[in-house]
Amino acid sequence: MGERGALLEGLRAYRLIAAMWVRSSMTYRTSFAVTVLGNLMVTGLDFVAILLMFSQVDTLGGWSLPEIALLYGLSATAFGIADLVLGSMDVLGGRIRDGSFDTLLVRPAPVLAQVGADHFALRRLGRITQGALVLGWALASAGIDWTPAKVLLVPVMLISGAVIFSAVFVAGAAFQILAQDAAEVQNAFTYGGTTLLQYPPTVFGKDLVRGVTFMLPLAFVNWVPAAHLLGRPYPIDLPGWTAFASPLVAAVCCALAGLAWRAGLRSYRSTGS
Predict the structure, then answer these.
(1) 151 Cβ contact list (under 8 Å, min separation 6)
(2) β-bridge mates for residue 40, sequence order
(3) Which of the 8 DSSP states describes residue 60?
(4) Measured distance CA(128)–CA(242) in Å, rounded
(5) pLDDT tens per residue, range 188-232
(6) Which one, 178, 199, 215, 263, has least CB within 10 Å?
(7) Could you count the other beta carbons within 10 Å of the beta carbon of residue 255?
(8) If you write DSSP's letter for every residue of 11-45 in order, what string do you get?
(9) Residue 63 in 3-state DSSP?
(10) Is the pLDDT of residue 119 over 60?
(11) Per the confidence metrics, is the pTM higher than 0.85?
C-alpha cells in the first residue's frame, strides 16, 4: 500500500472510530448539551482572567484588550480544533502501562488513527465555540486596516495553527512511547503552549520568544501573523514574508511529527517483552 493508500485508510479508520464515540455520546442528548455548555463556560474562564486584568490596566505589554483578544481567539480556536481531532492522544501513556496498546498494534488499522480517534469527544466543541466568539469580537474591535491579503490570512492562521498543534500532539504521543508515559510533558507543550500564546510576545523575554519562534514554532499559530495583521513590529527581527509562512511551518511540523511517530513505534517494547 502506497503513502496515499495508507493515508486514506487511516482517515477511514479515524472516521469510523470517531463516529462510534459520537453515537455513544449522543445517546443522552441532554447530558451531552449540558457537558458542551459546561466546557464552553470553563474554557471561558481563561478570557475572564484577561478581562479582570484589563479592569486594572489599559494595556498589557503595549497591547490593548481587543488586540490580546485577537491572540486569545486565534490560539483558543486553533487549539480547540486540534484538541477535538487529536486531544485523546494523552491517554496513550495509560494504554502503554496497562498493556492495551498492544491490542491497537495488531488491529488492521493504522495505529495513529486508532489513538487519535480514541474517546473522540464532541464536548470539546465548547472550546472552539468560545474561542471563535472572542475571535469574532476581536476582529471587529481591533481596528485592523483590512486588505484582501489580511482577510485571507485569518483562515490561513486558524487552519495552520490547528495543524501545528496537531503535530505537537502527535510528537508528544511519540515521546510517551519512548518514555513509557509522560503525558504531563505533552500537556506542557499543548495546553501550556496555547496559554502562552494568549498573551502578547512583548511580555516575555526575547530568549523565550526566539525559542517559541525557531525551536518549537508555536509563534506561527498567532504571534507572527497577528503582528502583521495588526501592523505591529515583531519583538525579534523577521522578514516580512514570515507573516504568511504558517502553512510552510505547519507542513514541516507535520513531517517531523510523522518521523517522530514512526521512530516511537519502532522503539516500542511490549509490556510482555
Answers:
(1) none
(2) none
(3) B
(4) 26
(5) 888 888 999 999 999 999 999 999 999 999 999 999 999 999 999
(6) 215
(7) 11
(8) HHHHHHHHHHHHHHHTTSHHHHHHHHHHHHHHHHH
(9) strand
(10) yes
(11) yes
